[in-house]
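User:
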Amino acid sequence: MRVEGLSVPYTISTDNTLSLVLLLCSLLSIMIVMRSRNVLSLRIRSLFIQTTNLSNYRRTKNNEREELFLSALSVFSLSLIGYSAELHYFGNALAINHYLVMMSYAGIFIAYLLMKRFLYMISIPMYSNIQQWRAWRHLFSFTTALQGLWFLPIAIINIYLGLGAPTTLILAIIGVAITFFVRIYNAWSIFFKKKKLYVPFFLYLCTLEAVPLALLAGTLTGVAQTLKGT
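Assistant: Predicted structure:
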């Protein structure tokens, strides 16, 4: 029964707009997986096989469109996970509109991906050829897209089945960690393995992977603390 004067706390599960968006995203994701399951299987397998054959990293125009959608889905899902964690730890005391909070998290993740791409563009071509650089761009896009397939089910289960913020965050961190190590593994295979370039590999690991990830974690923590104080 509704009590006059008392507002019902906002939850994503009761938001019809977001529920519809999640439903459409789920259906489109299933369609992509079903239509491209053979290609996806082969490309995922190639991520764990060290090779100098750069043709393993090629993609078609159709793959590019699918990866763009799944990458956007990754950002969207992470923004929902971030907002759910915000509600869990700080309650409904936030003075900022819930959509603005989600957009803030989405903006952070978009900025992180753009920063990564920019850092790759200015550094990787210095120790690679055009074929290696193209292969790396394809790999980066593909692994970002795969994150969308990982984060969306986690976000949905958390929102509608009450997975819980701690478990949800752990699963999200696992997804980020897997992507982190897969990219390192493939960077060694594409750029450094043939010539045994250990020092450049270490510099790549620190400046292009570890530091941006640490900045992302610090930014998310800072935003969460700022929202807590509003």
